[in-house]
UniProtKB/TrEMBL annotation:
SUPFAM superfamilies: Fibronectin type III, Immunoglobulin
Statement: the UniProt record of this protein carries the keyword Membrane: no
Span of domain Fibronectin type-III: 138-236
InterPro entries attached to this UniProt entry: FN3_dom, FN3_sf, Growth/epo_recpt_lig-bind, Ig-like_dom, Ig-like_dom_sf, Ig-like_fold
Top-rank taxon: Eukaryota
Protein name: Cytokine receptor like factor 1
Sequence ranges assigned to domain Ig-like in this UniProt record: 40-117
UniProt source species: Cyanistes caeruleus
Entry-linked Pfam families: EpoR_lig-bind (PF09067)
Isomerase listed as a keyword: no
Biased composition (Low complexity): 1-14, 258-282
Record region (Disordered): 1-33, 254-306
Basic and acidic residues biased stretches: 15-33
């Protein structure tokens, strides 16, 4: 290059050196680490991601790694982006700063509240998620129905405050009443947020126990057990909205039918008449459809829907 060009770059070099000297050095660049080595975390918060009841108090600590030249006086805390007052801090050592939180409210979001330790210049050193809430409340008002007497869909009403602050998982379980093992429903949200569908493998003339378990970080709550026979449930005529219709009958009385416990819709094939079928009648019906009902024992096509009921007090066998 021409001499003049080389000479023009000369004065800029001292200026760059002066600017580099004047620029404040980041504490994170003070120490060099071997190529490929894992870089240590700047700091650690303890406890990490705690779960607490509403109204609890907490003392958290932020301890800076020895690899970073930061002292306790170089730190501050934020909760959900809001700087916490210095009066709540205490230096527990040269590089450890604590913060005291009293009478905690429920978490603002189910993913947890963000408690963050910062360096003086605003850099994030470490963080912890606070999960503050209540144990789950037991689900109530379980409602079940079947479209073809081969499947079963159930809905329930969750507890109120139990899932307001913490994420709550719901699991619907069922089993044959006397000799079955617990089964877990797999197809959720099929008829709304709090629902599950059992598509097959349900036995006729067999009572089932059904219940819902609610769980979150603070515990587990189990609903009352509902007992029903798939022959006692059905879809309301005309495909009417199920919300509220079956809840009184199934949730309060546990009888697996729509309508109130004391009165079922007139003419309903899954109504009160079927509910009053005796245990002996059910046992006979397991042996052979029609046995003990005044009808001769008969064979029906594989896909037929067979049910027992009453018409004006007289046992009726329907197909």
């Amino acid at each position: 290059l021409p001499t003049g060009v080389r000479g023009s770059a000369g004065p800029a070099a001292p200026r760059r050196a002066e600017l580099a000297k004047a620029k404040p050095k980041s504490p994170f660049r003070e120490r060099k680490f071997p190529l490929g080595a894992a870089r240590p975390h700047p700091a650690v918060i303890s406890p990490q991601d705690p779960t607490l009841l509403i109204g609890s108090s907490l003392v958290a600590t932020c301890t800076v790694s020895p690899d970073f030249p930061l002292k306790a006086e170089d730190l501050y805390w934020t909760l959900n982006g809001r700087r916490l007052p210095a009066a709540s801090y205490a230096a527990l050592g040269p590089s450890t700063l604590s913060v005291a939180l009293a009478r905690l409210n429920g978490s603002r979001q189910q993913s947890g509240d963000n408690l963050v330790c910062h360096s003086r210049d605003g850099g994030i050193l470490a963080g912890s998620c606070l999960y503050v809430g209540l144990p789950p409340e037991k689900p109530v008002n379980i409602t079940c129905w079947s479209k073809n007497m081969k499947d079963l869909t159930c809905k329930w009403v969750p507890g109120t405050e139990g899932e307001t602050f913490l994420h709550t998982n719901y699991t619907l379980k069922y089993k044959r009443r006397w000799y079955g093992q617990d089964n877990t429903c797999q197809e959720y949200h099929t008829a709304g947020t709090y629902s599950c569908h059992i598509p097959k493998d349900l036995a006729l003339f067999t009572p089932y126990e059904i219940w819902v378990e609610a769980s979150n970080r603070l515990g587990v709550a189990v609903s009352d057990v509902v007992m029903l026979d798939i022959l006692d449930v059905g879809e309301p005529p005309g495909g009417a909205d199920l919300a509220g219709r079956g809840r009184a009958g199934l949730g309060a009385a546990g009888n697996g039918r729509y309508g109130s416990p004391s009165s079922s819709p007139p003419g309903s094939w899954c109504g009160a008449g079927s509910a009053r079928s005796s245990a002996a009648s059910r046992q006979r019906s397991r042996e052979a459809p029609g046995a003990g009902t005044g009808f001769p024992t008969a064979r029906f096509p594989r896909d037929s829907h067979v049910f027992l009921g009453q018409d004006d007090g007289v046992d009726v066998l329907g197909v």
